[in-house]
Specification:
Elements lengths: L1 H12 L23 H14 L8 E5 L1 H12 L10 E5 L5 H5 L6 E5 L7 H13 L4 E5 L9 H5 L5 H13 L17 H8 L3 H4 L11 H10 L9 H12 L3
Parallel strand pairs: 1-2, 2-3, 3-4
């Protein structure tokens, strides 16, 4: 996912070591749950030992069920546990009240999308709950992105400028992009229409640009541009500043 890759690159540029861990479920919906706690602890312990990272502070970020897992993982770790994250960032997911009620819950940054109407009230309530208790919390909204000719090539090297411009022209001609450059349709809801619309343009027909949902960069970037339950990098500088400050890394 290009946005995940971008966040990882920005973390590396700030001197962080990046560890990417997948959930146990690789053949179902790939969501995170309680069964992932032990494997994550094991993976972190082994990797940090191997890479000489023992004693380093841990920051954690996750999106959707991964965001929920990050919050749960941080909440259940005892304050003195070396694997307890010093600060966390939760994208497009709310946390349960029990998790937030734990006295040693770490500072948390929430990235959320107003179009996630089923999640938005929960996340807003989480932020209000933490602020009421004077817990450090950062509130970052993710808004739709304008899709210009180089939108796709700006985000990923897997789509060059010419291909990006061809794709955007087709989207514009088919009224998928409005006069201000914003998407007018949900790429997930209309995924089949999107595939039929783009399959005959040269970069897609040649196999150079893939359209597979939840895998290929193009549909993932469209999801981010539409700003509904997708990875987001808006306000990344502020989120990193918050995490670094409250983890004592500045």
């Amino acid at each position: 996912q290009p946005v995940e890759r971008y966040i990882a690159q920005q973390a590396l540029s700030r001197g962080l070591a990046v560890i990417a861990i997948s959930s146990n479920d690789r053949f179902g919906n790939k969501c995170w749950d309680d069964d992932d706690v032990a494997p994550v602890r094991f993976a972190l312990t082994e990797i940090m030992k191997k890479e000489g990272l023992g004693g380093k502070k841990l920051l954690a970020i996750g999106a959707s069920s991964g965001g929920g897992f990050v919050g749960q993982f941080a909440g259940r770790m005892p304050a003195q546990d070396p694997l307890k994250p010093a600060a966390v960032a939760v994208q497009i997911m709310g946390l349960n009240e029990h998790t937030l009620s734990i006295p040693h819950f770490p500072p948390v940054a929430f990235w959320h999308m107003p179009k996630d109407s089923h999640l938005e009230p929960h996340i807003v309530a989480n932020i209000a709950q933490l602020k009421k208790k004077y817990f450090p919390v950062h509130d970052q909204t993710c808004n739709p992105l304008q899709v210009g000719d180089t939108f796709f090539s700006d985000w990923t090297r897997m789509i060059d400028e010419k291909a990006s411009a061809e794709i955007v022209k087709t989207l514009r001609d088919e009224k998928w992009i409005d006069a201000q450059g914003y998407l007018t349709k949900d790429p997930r809801r209309y995924a089949l229409d999107l595939e039929m619309m783009l399959r005959d343009i040269p970069p897609v027909a040649s196999g150079k640009v893939k359209l597979k949902a939840d895998s290929a960069p193009l549909p993932e970037l469209l999801n981010t541009a539409y700003a509904q339950h997708s990875w987001c990098a808006e306000g990344l500088e502020g989120v990193f500043a918050f995490l670094f400050k409250h983890a004592g890394l500045t």
